[in-house]
Amino acid sequence: MKRWLKWWKQSKDLTDAPRSGRSRVTNPKQNQKIVALAEQQTFLISQDITNQLNKKGVEISQRTPLLIENHREKRLKWTEDQRTTDWNQVTFSDETTIPMNSVKGPVWNLPGKKKVVRTVKHPIKVNVWACFSARGFSRVVCFKENLNADLMCHIYKYGLLPTARKQFGYGSTLWKLQEDSGPKHTSKLATNWRMNNNIPKIDWPSMSPDIASI
């Protein structure tokens, strides 16, 4: 959506240029609607705009990663490698941060309409980790500190493993873990912990938040 707004600022034209690959799901009129929503309600986030359009039958994604050729090639290879994966045996996991005050977050800043927003220097926030599979949802793990490798192992022990054992059976090695390639996940400490506790993990391409169902 940021890219669309950039195009609009430069050319006032949201028409697709000729290109190969999958065509855009929105038409010029719907593209204008997206820009109008951002102009009229500057506090709307991408998810809000997505929800409004989805209610009208326009199925779009709130996040479209900006991919270079290397990213595209790796995503294609990953797709080919995962053709035989049983997704019923995969546990999807992720973390997010929830602000606990009334100060709103992202604001659309359009030409000549810069929005000034009062902010709190050290806002109260809660970090949340969770996972789910085709068999159900996990317990939610909340924490205030920044997520590092030590804390990640703690979450594996008290959040991930109890959920996997409940859903797939104690000692089962049939399930696999999905998580992004963040440094806390790829650290030596977290990697060794997963290996020592027989937690298999599927490979994950970079710049691919739109692939993960969580």
In words, what does this structure look like?
InterPro entries: RNaseH_sf (IPR036397). One of its GO terms (molecular function) is nucleic acid binding. This protein has helices at 2-11, 28-40, 46-55, 69-81, 149-168, 183-186, 188-196, and strands at 90-99, 125-133, 136-137, 141-143, 176-178. By secondary structure, it is an alpha+beta fold. It folds into 2 domains: 2-55, no CATH class; 70-196, Nucleotidyltransferase, domain 5 (2-Layer Sandwich). Strands 1, 2, 3, 4 and 5 form a 5-stranded mixed sheet that branches. Strand 2 (125-133) and strand 3 (136-137) form a beta hairpin. Helix 5 (149-168) runs parallel beside helix 7. The mean pLDDT is 84.
Characteristics of this structure?
214 residues, alpha+beta, Nucleotidyltransferase, domain 5, 2 domains, five-stranded mixed sheet, 7 helices, globular
* CATH architecture identity of the largest domain: 2-Layer Sandwich
* Class by SSE composition: alpha+beta
- Please, what is the average pLDDT? 84
| Distance between the amino and carboxyl termini | 21 Å
Question: Which CATH class of the largest domain applies here?
Answer: Alpha Beta
How large, in whole angstroms, is the Cα Rg?
Answer: 20 Å
How many domains in all? Answer: 2
The proportion of residues forming helix, as a percent range, comes to 25-40%
Low-confidence stretches: none
DSSP strand content: 5-15%
Overall shape: it is: globular
Instruction: Give the biggest sheet.
Output: 5 strands, mixed
Written as H for each helix and E for each strand, in order along the chain, the element string is: HHHHEEEEHEHH
GO molecular function: nucleic acid binding
